Amino acid sequence: MSGAEKASPHVNAGFDPKRPLDPSRALVPATVRLNEQLVARGFWPKVRRVAARVPFAAEALSVWYCVQDAQTPAAAKGMMLAGLAYFVMPADAIPDFIAGLGYTDDAAVFTALLALVGRHIRPQHRAAARDAIDRLRAAD
Fold first, then answer.
1. Which has more confidence, 94 or 42?
2. Taking all residues of the chain, what is their mean pLDDT, rounded to a whole number?
3. Nearest-angstrom CA–CA distance, 116 and 95
4. Where does the pLDDT of residue 18 fall: very low under 50, low under 70, confident under 90, or very high at 90 and above?
5. How far apart are CA 34 and CA 5, in angstroms?
6. How far is 91 from 96, CA to CA, in rounded Å?
């Protein structure tokens, strides 16, 4: 089917499936805004519920504090927001309520995320995350 025959010929105009993907296209402003909204609504409620149960809670909080930092590059923030949004979403690859397995997909997402953009997480982000974890766990 040619572009002229498609219902939306302007969608993916100029896309060549044989060429490598352009990583900058992953940070579409509308997607970043949606992820920002998901994280703004759901991050703290979820962290409060699961801080004592997930071993990567400190990493998730470090990423959240890094996103709040004006010094963090926009591309890194976009990737971080995508990882945080996955964590917040109630439906994911392995449902969170499955005992023993529920957060393994979230942990894998954070592992990959930290490999990609972890260099932007500064000591002050990690310190703020540790303080938040201590407060959350003390409240339990």
1. 42
2. 82
3. 25
4. confident
5. 31
6. 8
Residue with tokens 């974890």: 133
Stronger pLDDT, 58 or 9, i.e. the higher one: 58
Distance CA(86)–CA(11), nearest Å, equals 25
What are the φ and ψ backbone dihedral angles of 133, each rounded to 5 degrees? -60, -45
Tell me the C-alpha distance between 40 and 55, whole Å: 22
Reported as type and span, the H/E element at residue 116 is helix 104-117
Tokens, residue 108: 């894998």
Tell me how crowded residue 36 is: count the other CB atoms within 10 A of its CB. Answer: 16
- Quote the DSSP letter at residue 95: -
132 confidence band (pLDDT: 50, 70, 90) = very high
User: Can you list the alpha helix ranges (DSSP code H) found in 69-122?
Assistant: 74-88, 104-117
Nearest to 41 by CA among 1, 94, 81: 81
Q: For residues 13 and 55, give the distance between their C-alpha atoms in angstroms, rounded to a whole number.
A: 43
User: CB of 62 within 8 A of CB of 126?
Assistant: yes
CA distance 2 to 8: 11
Residues 110-126 have a mean pLDDT of 94
